[in-house]
Task: inverse folding
C-alpha cells in the first residue's frame, strides 16, 4: 500500500499514513481540514548494466529468439555457433563482397 503525507489544519501538524487510494480519497472527502501534501517520488533510473548476469530462464529465452532470427544482432551476441556455422558465414560474406565488387 502506498504511503501518503497529510497536513491537518486544525492541529497544524503533518503526518504520514499508509492506505489504499480509495481510502485516501474517502478521507479527504470526509475531513475537509486534512489536505494531502505532495512529496517527491523516488525514481530508480538503473539497477545494473546490459552485461549483468542474467538467470538461466532469461538466457534460454534470448537463445530461442536468436535461433528464430539467425541474422539478427541478438543472435550474434547470444547463440553459440558451431565451427561449421562460422565458416559458412565467412564464405557467404566473402562471396557477397565479391558480388558487390563486380
Result:
Amino acid at each position: 500500500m502506498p504511503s501518503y503525507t497529510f497536513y491537518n489544519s486544525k492541529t497544524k501538524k503533518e503526518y504520514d499514513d499508509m492506505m489504499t487510494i480509495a481510502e485516501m480519497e474517502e478521507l479527504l472527502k470526509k475531513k475537509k481540514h486534512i489536505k494531502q501534501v505532495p512529496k517527491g517520488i523516488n525514481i530508480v533510473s538503473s539497477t545494473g548494466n546490459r552485461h549483468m548476469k542474467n538467470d538461466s530462464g532469461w538466457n534460454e529465452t534470448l537463445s530461442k529468439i536468436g535461433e528464430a532470427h539467425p541474422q539478427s544482432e541478438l543472435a550474434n551476441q547470444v547463440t553459440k555457433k558451431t565451427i561449421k556455422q562460422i565458416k559458412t558465414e565467412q564464405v557467404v560474406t566473402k562471396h557477397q563482397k565479391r558480388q558487390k565488387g563486380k
Summary: The helical segments are 21-30, 56-68, 73-78, 83-101. DSSP finds four helices and three strands in the chain. The first helix runs from residue 21 to 30. Strands lie at 3-8, 13-18, 34-36.
